[in-house]
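Re: How this chain folds, sequence and tokenised backbone to follow

Filed under: protein folding, tokenised backbone structure, sequence and structure records.

Contents: The amino acid chain and a row of whole-number tokens, matched residue for residue.

Body of memo: The sequence and its backbone structure tokens, given next.
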Amino acid sequence: MQQLGSDIAVLEQIASGSHDFAKVLTDAKRPMIVLGAGAVTRKDGAAVLRLAARIAADTGMIGPAGTHAEGGWNGFNILHTAASRVGALDLGFLPAPNTDGKAGRDVAGIVDGAQKGEIDFIYLLGADEIDVAHLGRAFVVYQGSHGDAGAHHADVILPGAAYTEKDGIYVNFEGRVQRGRRAAFPPGEAKEDWAIIRALSDVLGVKLPYDDRPGLVAALEKDATHFAQLNAAPVHADASAATWGAVGESGPLDYALVTHAITDYYLTNPIARSSETMAKCSQELVRGAGRMAAE
């Protein structure tokens, strides 16, 4: 393994072909890039993404069947910090345009709107990793399993099932659809998330067109057909230069070193934060390591 460092300028040099590693990628049978959240969530993240896409285009990281391996090769990947974010993106979980045609709000925009009094209702679906302390006077509904940060700032709590208490469909960063099976039933009044949303849709007068999980899965597979193919890597058509040119945005680079998006691996989600074992790991392996470094 060759460590190229944490300087974003290295990526720029590879894209221009001036770095020695550019030839390694060009000559590779199966070249690959995995972009972590630390690279794409920076202020210049869109420009970093554009550079990575340029490298992918120049080295044939995604090509038609038979280009790099039987069945094609997908070597351009984004490593997200949330489970099955790829699946959510496949289903179009993006800020919806407003009725006036303007772009919808992302998470930061929603928090900002709540602070300014522009948003008076917020529905948190298992959202604990956002700045819930600055939601202003908005009425907050929280749906989740472990009563973490989102629940502490909610006006109404709808108890959902943890991932171990329900069947689930996940998509990994390579695009492979995977399924998880329920290991236990949810406690008390908790229900699977889809069942809560289905019941709520009936109350609101916009009844969703399924009454059970098989019906939901069928609707899902009809909308996104590749969800019916388990553990199969999607086969991509040959991506043209125009396609790669639309990835990311041109802009200035910030030459600060790339840092980790996650500061404490052991406390990254509500289930981990409710675990005594994970708390001990964090105390000893993260905070303890920090103390020793300081000493």
